[in-house]
Amino acid sequence: SRKVTRSRVVREPVTGIVKVGSRVPEPEPAPEPEPAPAVGGDSAVWDQLAQCESGGNWSTNTGNGYYGGLQFNASTWQAYGGSGLPHEASRETQIAVATKLRDASGGYGAWPACSASLGLPN
Predict the structure, then answer these.
(1) Could you tell me which residues come within 8 angstroms of residue 47 by beta carbon, excluding any fewer than 6 positions away?
(2) Which of 31, 57, 68, 99 has the most other CB atoms within 10 Å of its CB?
(3) Is the pTM of this model over 0.85?
(4) pLDDT of 86-113, one tens digit each?
């Protein structure tokens, strides 16, 4: 059997782990970048704007001179690259033309009432 004949504390205990050595730890990887936004920026914003402007009907022709989900007039539509009339174009094409208009004017001012109600920048 074993018996302790004497004891001596060489080092006091520590409450944490101490790393010893010269190796530099690997840096944390950078976070993944955000995915590219959908068509024309955030397509959900365009859907909300269309819901406000036209009840979300991308093919509406109300007979008041404004057409499609985002209620373009024909001259604005054509000035920003649309062909034919807006209500005849796909949702994606309407968003692409609307994005050009938004970017050229610096905001959603072409849709004043709905952009204000949605809190979008003019």
Answers:
(1) 56
(2) 68
(3) no
(4) 999 999 999 999 999 999 999 999 999 9
